[in-house]
Amino acid sequence: MYIPVKRTLSDRHDDNVMLDVFLAFQFIGGIGNIAMLLTAIFSRRVIRHSTWLNFCVTWVIFSISYTLLFFAGQQRSSLQTAYPLCLTQASLIYGAPVLYVICTIVCPWIAQVALSARALILFKIHKPSPYQTLLLLIVPYILWFSAVIAALVSGVKFPETVSRNFDDGGLYCEITTGIPGRIVAVLVGIALVLAFTLEIMLGVTLRKNWAAFEGHHSKLPMSMIIRVAVFVGVSVLAFSTVFVFLSRQFSVSNVVLSLLPFFSFVTFATQKDLLSVWTFRPHP
């Protein structure tokens, strides 16, 4: 059972500021990804691969998971959250890192890009098979569902461990047994090792074939270079979230978590075709 701890006015003010910042970045990222998803679905001027659409869905799920208490009207409550709601949010939160790491880094943006880059170097058009695309779309959700179920089982078995940590501002619910966190950390760690391995392989391939690549494409767009650089930064942030479940330093981790959906939106919302649709301008 949660025992209230006496907090000063300064502590409560800092908690409110952290909560506002946390929610602002989560909502900007979530709503922004919904806007990109709907634009790609309904606008004929914006053509995106299904894995990119999956990318947007992933961040929407991520943002909803961390703002579930807000939608339930209990985000600013000083009382402990009801067990069913708290368990639901905690389970979704422990599954979120597995979903976004695998769905946004390993599957579309590493495996898909690596295959496309190889085809580009060989001056061929790479078209993934329907089975390959289906695999890239389904596997992340299977692993996400597995992580959610594992957290649910732990929370049901040890209900006293499911609660909001008000000493850390009570931003969201968690399960304090440590079991779901360790499972998630292992899954995310394996996925990130695989992702970085594929990134290195892609870099080596491009380096060996740079002369042919540069001759075929005289100049890389600066916007592409910037987006790749930002994406690498997001990958580094993703790597740091492994320690959310291994360390108790949540004050730093919460800032990182709130920035992830925001950065993913900013990275891809600057593409010219999306901007032209949103500003009602002719396609460049």
The termini sit apart by 60 Å
CATH architecture: Up-down Bundle
**What is the name of the CATH superfamily?**
Rhodopsin 7-helix transmembrane proteins
CATH topology: Rhopdopsin 7-helix transmembrane proteins
Question: What's the main sheet like?
Answer: 2 strands, antiparallel
Fraction in helix:
over 70%
The averaged pLDDT comes out at 75
- Major β-sheet strand ordering: 1-2
How many DSSP H or I helices?
10
The CATH class turns out to be Mainly Alpha
Shape: globular
Tell me the structural class: mainly alpha
3D architecture notes:
It is a single chain. The protein has 284 residues and is mainly alpha-helical. It has a single domain (9-273), classed as Up-down Bundle (Rhopdopsin 7-helix transmembrane proteins). Helix content is 72%, strand content 2%. The protein has helices spanning 9-42, 50-66, 68-71, 83-121, 130-157, 179-208, 210-216, 222-240, 250-269, 272-278, and strands at 162-164, 173-175. α2 (50-66) runs antiparallel to α9, α4 (83-121) runs antiparallel to α5 and α5 (130-157) packs antiparallel against α6. The protein starts with 8 loop residues before the first helix and ends in a 6-residue tail after the last helix. This is G-protein coupled receptors family 1 profile domain-containing protein. The chain crosses the membrane at residues 21-40, 52-72, 92-121, 133-156, 183-204, 225-246, 252-270.
